[in-house]
Amino acid sequence: MSQQAPSPRDPQVPRHVAVIMDGNGRWAQARDRARTVGHRAGLRAARKIVRAAGRAGVEVLTLFAFSQENWKRPETEVSLLMQLFVSTLSREMNSLHKNNVRVRFIGEHSDFAPELREEMRRAQMLTRDNHGMQLLVAVGYGGQWDIVQAAQRLAASGRPITPESLEAELATEEVCPPDLLIRTGGESRISNFLLWQLAYTELYFTPTLWPDFDDEAFADALRWYAGRERRFGRVPEAA
Q: Does the pTM exceed 0.70?
């Protein structure tokens, strides 16, 4: 998982890529397997994309792993997801640390089991001084929650609420907004993910189910992004 960021930086490579990893359950159902089999396959896909992003020179990769709405899923599925998070963290952290990846978890974690919260804390402490790619894992996260908690902190401090001050209180305050959002699985919505941060993000929707999203699929998304003209409200250059 080598980190080979180009120097000087290639402007056609997004600095920050966010991913909604959708389609694990449908991938499993298409194979007459339990949805949990799809979640395990999805973890393998996530490992591949972390490596692909590092090789491409992406500076920040944010993965939407578990939304606040996902608590409404069947209890057995949620329980297995929590177990997978714990086992994956304990298994992957040394490799991520060795490859200079800094890991952070964003979201509301008070409802997570103590064991999972401890694994998350250990991962962040282990990698906090790394200077390679930042990996943000959104768990227990919701975009509306993020904006509300930022506004509440500003109100409690007595500071004025401005776009700049609110942005500084968001869960992603340490990183730039996403340049590219990838959503797999064929749906064309952002599902309460990074609502504030995605204001000018390029949105890439693909029918590929997440377990099938591999290095080449990721490269396709980067090529699509490289062909975009990002205007941020300005007129096209040709005009």
A: yes
